[in-house]
């Protein structure tokens, strides 16, 4: 069964480059990002892991812990990390799961046999503090992920978890948001005292409420 949005993220215990980790214990009350890679010593993945290492302060600012996964053994990960640090001019500062027998990969539906039965697909999951899956994106092996987009979605998820708003197309932190349809227009002034703009009865803008 494949994982879907709002499903509970499967728990697991796995060998990682930071030692054995129980996923739920490691997450604690944080948000989590789990991202998978086709294999070690591959070019796109090398750039992705370097990019995430550089963005770690941005994830931490949002109380998000990041963990990578690839099906190679842990010693291979350690050897690869040396290359990543050297070529991407960074220090990989988050754990990489070693999943040689596909235990975690199967839980997260990361083996798509028509793509490959040997390698995991390039997927990313955002998991909330309630351990529910908030976002799933699967990319082609040939396309590196945009981690700024991932941070943007996390900003939206964290905002919309606390306020009755949604974020419009291409929204970025600090921009106007839309009021969700369940809020009546006459209720908006009390809920959103910074002001609002009614463009259509169903399209109501308000400044980002948590700033
Ligand atoms: C990569 O991560 O670089 C990659 C993996 C599989 C196919 C193509 C590129």
Mean pLDDT: 97
Outline, from the CA principal axes? Answer: elongated
Biggest beta-sheet profile: 5 strands, mixed
CATH superfamily of the largest domain: Glutaredoxin
| Share in helix | 25-40%
In percent, how much strand structure appears in the residues?
15-25%
Q: CATH topology of the largest domain, anyone?
A: Glutaredoxin
CATH class descriptor name of the largest domain: Alpha Beta
Distance between the termini: 40 Å
Which value, in Å, is the CA radius of gyration?
A: 19 Å
Strand tally is 11
**Second CATH tier, the architecture of the largest domain:** 3-Layer(aba) Sandwich
Instruction: Give the total of domains.
Output: 2
Number of discrete helical segments? 6
Q: Helix- and strand-based class?
A: alpha+beta
Order of helices and strands: EEHEHEHEHEEHEEHEE
Low-confidence stretches: none
Strand order of the largest sheet: 5-4-3-6-7
- Distinct small molecules bound, one entry per kind: benzoic acid
Describe this structure as you would to a colleague.
With 211 residues, the chain is an alpha+beta fold. It folds into two domains: 13-145, 3-Layer(aba) Sandwich (Glutaredoxin), CATH 3.40.30; 163-206, Antioxidant, Horf6, Chain A, domain2 (Antioxidant, Horf6, Chain A, domain 2), CATH 3.30.1020. It has six helices and eleven strands. The strands form three sheets. It has a five-stranded mixed β-sheet with strand order 5-4-3-6-7, covered by helices on one side. Helix 2 (43-61) links the parallel strand 3 and strand 4. It is elongated. It starts with 12 loop residues before the first strand and ends in a 5-residue tail after the last strand. The protein binds benzoic acid. Benzoic acid binds next to helix 2.
């Amino acid at each position: 069964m494949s994982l879907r949005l709002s499903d509970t993220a499967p728990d697991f215990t796995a060998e990682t480059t930071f030692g054995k980790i129980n996923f739920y214990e490691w997450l604690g009350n944080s948000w989590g990002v789990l991202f998978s890679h086709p294999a070690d010593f591959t070019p796109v993945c090398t750039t992705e892991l370097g990019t995430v290492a550089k963005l770690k302060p941005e994830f931490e600012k949002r109380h998000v812990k990041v963990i990578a996964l690839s099906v190679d053994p842990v010693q291979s990960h350690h050897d690869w990390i040396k290359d990543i640090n050297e070529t991407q001019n960074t220090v990989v500062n988050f754990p990489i799961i070693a999943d040689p027998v596909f235990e975690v990969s199967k839980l997260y539906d990361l083996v798509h046999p028509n793509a490959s039965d040997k390698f995991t697909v390039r997927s990313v999951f955002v998991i909330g503090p309630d351990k529910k899956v908030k976002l799933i994106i699967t990319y082609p092996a040939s396309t590196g992920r945009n981690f700024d987009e991932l941070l943007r979605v996390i900003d939206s998820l964290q905002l919309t978890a606390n306020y009755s708003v949604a974020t419009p197309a291409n929204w970025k932190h600090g921009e106007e948001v839309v009021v969700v349809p369940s809020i009546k227009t006459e209720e908006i002034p009390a809920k959103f005292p910074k002001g609002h703009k009614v463009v259509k009865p169903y399209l109501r803008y308000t400044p980002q409420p948590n700033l």
